[in-house]
Amino acid sequence: MPPIPRRTFALVTVILCAAFWYLSSPSAPVTSVFSYFDIRGTSSTPEIYGLLHRILEAEDGGGAVVDEHAIGLDAFATEKVDWRKEKALLDREYPVVIFSKTYCPYSKRLKSLFIPSPPSHNNQEFRPSPYNLNSLPLVIEVDTRPDAFAIKQQLKRITGRGTFPNFIVFGGSVGGADEVTGMHSRGELEEFLREKGLLGL
User: Fold this and answer.
1) Residue 8, φ and ψ in degrees, nearest 5
2) What CA–CA distance (Å, rounded) separates 90 from 66?
3) How far apart are CA 62 and CA 140, in angstroms?
4) CA gap 197, 179 in Å, rounded
5) pLDDT tens track, the chain, 201 positions
6) Residue 184's domain spans which residues?
7) CATH number for the domain that contains residue 40
8) Is 117 exposed, middle or buried, given 0-12, 13-18 or 19+ CB atoms closer than 10 A?
9) What is the pairing mode between strands 138-141 and 166-169?
10) Residue 97 and residue 52: Cα distance in Å, rounded?
11) Where would one find the signal peptide in this protein (predicted)?
């Protein structure tokens, strides 16, 4: 085998060093790889399901809070979890999840597309939602939780979106208020939801 030319060797070395520097940077999108695969590469369950598992465990009285430094599905669990079964369960129970803030006007605008508004002292009219979802979205009001900052950091790492609201469908982030209401205005949202099997008859 002929020796590798010195110029080629130097070029390959520079490329490898640049790639290592980029992937080790905090801003590198390498974490998106970990969001779809367990840190040990043993699961194809998106990491958002680990985050949801932890949040729901806390709401059920488990006392768990989200760790902003957790990476990998098992880092979100306090016990052994079959992540394929957990994903199937969460998809069945909560196919649509909205990460929201109670005071945020953008969050309120997005939620109004999917959650009926009951009469109030300011408005006596019942406003149905434009979309007849098979089940109401799971709304997680992040600002009411003690681990709000950690959830924000994890959502930014896992979905690429660190602002609210964050509209999740079957484990994938569709976007925030601008993206989803834009789909609504263009008449694309109904088709999207229907293709996902989320609309009632």
Assistant:
1) -65, -40
2) 18
3) 16
4) 20
5) 555 566 665 665 656 655 555 444 434 433 343 343 333 334 578 999 999 999 998 776 555 689 988 899 999 998 999 999 999 999 999 999 999 999 999 999 999 999 987 655 566 565 678 898 999 999 999 999 999 999 999 999 999 999 999 999 999 999 999 999 999 999 999 999 999 999 976
6) 27-195
7) 3.40.30.10
8) middle
9) unpaired
10) 9
11) 1-26
Establish if 21 belongs to a structural domain: no
* Alpha helices by DSSP H, the chain: 6-23, 31-36, 48-57, 83-93, 105-111, 148-159, 177-185, 189-195
Is residue 160 a part of any domain in this protein? yes
Could you tell me if residue 6 is inside a domain?
no
| Whether 65 contacts 151, CB under 8 Å | no
Strand order in the sheet with 166-169: 138-141, 96-100, 166-169, 172-175
3-class secondary structure for 148-200? Answer: HHHHHHHHHHHHCCCCCCEEEECCEEEECHHHHHHHHHCCCHHHHHHHCCCEC
Tally the domains of the chain. 1
Strand partners, 97: 138, 168
Integer Cα distance of 60 and 135 in angstroms: 20
Q: What would you report as the CA-atom Rg of the chain, rounded to the nearest whole angstrom?
A: 21
Residue 2 counted as domain residue: no
Residue type, 6: R
